[in-house]
Design brief:
By secondary structure, this protein is mostly helical. Helices cover 78% and strands 0% of the residues.
Length: 243
């Protein structure tokens, strides 16, 4: 139970409080529960969409997006903003890129990227809700967090120390592979929507990982958060395009 609570505390703003710092091995096992946290978030969004079904569709989309951001505490959006600033301001230099990601300030490129991503999410949600397609509300959070499992399994963590390094060091690799296979099977069982969402997630994950490895030699917490946001957005847009 503790690994799940660690994942819930780290990935959401839900009122979960742990007594003391968990052991690194327990923190590593918390990664196995990331897809489950995504499924929980998706279920909350699904139920929220049912609760406001009678309101205007644009308002539904805006409210669900606001709840989505609130549930995650904008943690991953912050990672996307830092990564966007670093990729532009780093000028291809690894050390400069890593230094910019540590800077808490956001530049114009970060603001532009966040606005564009949230706009795409909003319009995609609007399109999906208007068509009565709610499966994306489950798939996007699920695959976004599943992508982190794949990233940590295949990619070095480049910053020493900190929670991210502990997660990567104590990742139960055999169990992660089983969870990822279960995630793939779940998506395939959902039919066309699941297939499409899975393919889009894999494509974004491969391209993002390649960019990370070329620029900084691995991943950081910020680039992991950026990947999650990109996967969520990609899944929503791809499913909206087929409506």
């Amino acid at each position: 139970m503790q690994p799940f609570l660690i994942a819930l505390q780290f990935l959401t703003s839900l009122p979960v409080r742990l007594s003391g710092m968990p052991a690194p091995q327990v923190a590593g096992r918390s990664l196995l529960h990331y897809p489950l946290v995504g499924l929980l978030l998706g279920s909350i969004l699904w139920l929220g969409s049912l609760a406001i079904e009678g309101t205007a569709v644009p308002l539904q989309a805006a409210l669900l997006l606001a709840v989505w951001v609130a549930l995650t505490g904008a943690l991953h959006l912050d990672g996307l903003a830092d990564s966007a600033d670093a990729w532009l301001g780093g000028f291809g230099d690894r050390e400069r890129t890593l230094a910019i990601m540590k800077d808490p300030r956001s530049g114009p490129i970060a603001v532009v990227v966040l606005v564009l991503l949230l706009l795409l999410k909003f319009v995609a949600l609007w399109t999906l809700l208007a068509a009565g397609e709610r499966m994306a509300l489950l798939l996007a959070p699920l695959l976004g967090r599943g992508a982190l499992l794949g990233l940590f399994l295949t990619t070095s963590y480049v910053r020493s120390g900190g929670l991210g390094h502990a997660l990567a060091e104590h990742l139960p690799r055999a169990s992660v592979r089983i969870v990822l296979l279960a995630l793939v099977a779940f998506c395939l069982a959902l039919g066309t929507s699941g297939w499409l969402a899975l393919m889009v997630s894999l494509a974004i994950g491969v391209l993002a990982r390649r960019a990370m490895c070329r620029r900084i030699g691995g991943t950081t917490g910020d680039t992991a958060g950026a990947l999650l946001e990109l996967v969520e957005c990609g899944v929503l847009v791809a499913l909206a395009l087929r409506v």
